[in-house]
């Protein structure tokens, strides 16, 4: 690299900034604010090779690419790469600067193999082109126009989801001391609230006897109530 970036520099431009400050300058042979986007024919490489030749980037990489025609008499670009091809997905999205339409953003996915039986990969490309780029193409040339490409690999969240499910089951199976004591007395919440002193009163005698007899059946009686009648 023949440039020096300030400490803590991060390159996270918006769609508008990519077109207005970088792609427009590249198309008109003017210098960009920072020379950190390389001119690379990305179709001569597979996407996993591109991070090694990028000027900058950790999880996403930027390139200027001069698109080529697929057919001499058309404007359809050639999307074939070394061991696969790029396939458009979704619809093109306009990019605005204020109220002005300055460009178009296209999303593509890389497939290994030959169409139409290629194998889909996790490599994604966002291709930015100027709004009026096709109208300036020379008909006698196989070259189309300059585009700016942002390439990255989609990250799966299956491991994160799996971890969340495991944590949920772990918490649901975990019992706190308070929860354990609540489960022990929930069979007779109103009767179990009686204290030892109340059970010793004469007019609570029948109830006390009933509770003691119930302890030998399916009903569970807290131990301190039974001991009070022993």
From TrEMBL:
Keywords: DNA-binding, Nucleus, Transcription, Transcription regulation. GO terms for molecular function: transcription cis-regulatory region binding. Residues 5-154 form the NAC domain. It is found in: Nucleus. GO terms for biological process: embryo development ending in seed dormancy; flower development; fruit ripening; leaf senescence; multidimensional cell growth; regulation of DNA-templated transcription. It holds the Pfam family NAM. GO terms for cellular component: nucleus. Its main location: nucleus. InterPro entries: NAC-dom, NAC_dom_sf. It comes from the Eukaryota. This is NAC domain-containing protein.
């Amino acid at each position: 690299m023949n440039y020096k970036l300030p400490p803590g520099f991060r390159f996270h431009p918006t769609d508008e900034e990519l077109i207005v400050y970088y792609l427009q300058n590249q198309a008109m042979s003017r210098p960009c604010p920072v020379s950190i986007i390389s001119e690379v024919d990305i179709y001569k490489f597979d996407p996993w090779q591109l991070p090694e030749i990028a000027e900058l980037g950790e999880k996403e990489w930027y390139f200027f690419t001069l698109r080529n025609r697929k057919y001499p008499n058309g404007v359809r670009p050639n999307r074939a790469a070394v061991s696969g091809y790029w396939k458009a997905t979704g619809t093109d999205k306009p990019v605005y600067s204020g109220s002005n339409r300055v460009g178009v953003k296209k999303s593509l996915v890389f497939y290994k193999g030959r169409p139409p039986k290629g194998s889909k990969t996790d490599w994604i490309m966002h291709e930015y082109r100027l709004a009026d780029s096709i109208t300036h193409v020379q008909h006698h040339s196989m070259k189309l126009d300059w585009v700016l490409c942002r390439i990255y690999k989609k990250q799966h969240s299956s491991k994160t989801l799996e971890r969340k499910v495991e944590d949920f089951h772990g918490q649901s199976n975990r019992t706190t001391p308070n929860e354990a004591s609540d489960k022990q007395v929930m069979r007779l919440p109103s009767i179990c609230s009686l204290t030892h002193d109340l059970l010793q009163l004469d007019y609570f005698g029948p109830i006390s006897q009933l509770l003691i007899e119930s302890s030998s059946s399916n009903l569970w009686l807290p131990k301190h109530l039974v001991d009070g009648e022993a």
